Amino acid sequence: MPDSSHLIRLLTVDAAGTLVRPWPSVGAVYGKTAREYGIDASDEDVEKNFYSAFGKLQVCKKTNGGEEKEFWRQVVTETFRPFSGDKDIDSLFEDLWNLFARGDCWKLAEGALETLSTLRERGYELAVLSNNDSRLRTVLADLQIDQVFHHIFISSEMRCEKPDLKIFRLVEAATGKKPAEILHLGDSHSRDFLGARNAGWSALLYGEPRLEEEQISQFSQLLKKLP
């Protein structure tokens, strides 16, 4: 982090891939649920198809600009296209939509609650800043992590997403903070790290492999970055 780290007053944290991750995996949850509907597909194949479909649809403005549930309906449809044949997957989609609205299918990053609670005690303002949909609110509540945050910013509710400069400016306006006072932590190099840097914020990349000098792989490492 830059030498100006002592100016940081607000920490924003990405959700999926940083604060939380699918549990035990997207492929495991999708695969198990699909087999209950008579769709025979391995967890590994489903996982591969999911990330391929999600990646393609996420960058498509027509789909990503639509209603959040319809976006995910398209992701599920594309994920199971090679396996579903002529089966109607509407009920499967509804089950998956509801499953991922609960904390059961997500797991908190190790040390996240303890680290964030300590930072809050140190006087830092905390916020979630996620490219996600409104189900994230119930997920965070189920995992009992929501109350550690002062704000929860979700892209579908803000009608823009990282790395769009607009979403960073909306956070500044809502919190009354200047760019130099904000540090963002996230696992995406383009959306989180570069997006925040381009907005004039400080940024930390989360996870592996190591791509940046300013990168951590455990939440507990934040405690040295934000004394």
Main attributes of the structure:
two-stranded antiparallel sheet, alpha/beta, 227 residues, 6-stranded parallel sheet, elongated, 46% helix, single chain
Order of helices and strands: EEHHHHHEHEHEHHEHEEH
Roughly what percent helix? 40-55%
Spatial sequence of strands, sheet with the most strands: 5-4-1-6-7-8
The biggest beta sheet, please? Answer: 6 strands, parallel
What is the tally of helical segments?
11
Question: Could you give the count of β-strands?
Answer: 8
Structural class: alpha/beta
Radius of gyration: 18 Å
The low-confidence parts are: none
Q: What is the average of the pLDDT values?
A: 93
Please state roughly what percent of the residues sit in beta strands, choosing from under 5%, 5-15%, 15-25%, 25-35%, 35-45% or over 45%. 5-15%
Overall geometric form: elongated
Distance between the termini: 12 Å
Topology, pairings included?
Layout: E1 10-13, E2 20-22, H1 26-36, H2 43-58, H3 61-64, H4 68-84, H5 90-99, E3 106-108, H6 112-121, E4 125-130, H7 135-142, E5 151-154, H8 155-158, H9 165-175, E6 182-186, H10 189-198, E7 202-206, E8 215-216, H11 222-225
Parallel strand pairs: 1-4, 1-6, 4-5, 6-7, 7-8
Antiparallel strand pairs: 2-3
In short:
The protein is built from eleven helices and eight strands.
Task: Characterise the protein shown here.
The protein is α/β, with parallel strands linked by helices and 227 residues long. Helix content is 46%, strand content 14%. It has helices spanning 26-36, 43-58, 61-64, 68-84, 90-99, 112-121, 135-142, 155-158, 165-175, 189-198, 222-225; strands spanning 10-13, 20-22, 106-108, 125-130, 151-154, 182-186, 202-206, 215-216. The chain has a six-stranded parallel sheet, sandwiched between helices. Helix 7 (135-142) links the parallel strand 4 and strand 5 (151-154). Helix 1 (26-36) packs across helix 2 (43-58) and helix 2 (43-58) packs across helix 4 (68-84). The model has no long low-confidence stretch (mean pLDDT 93).
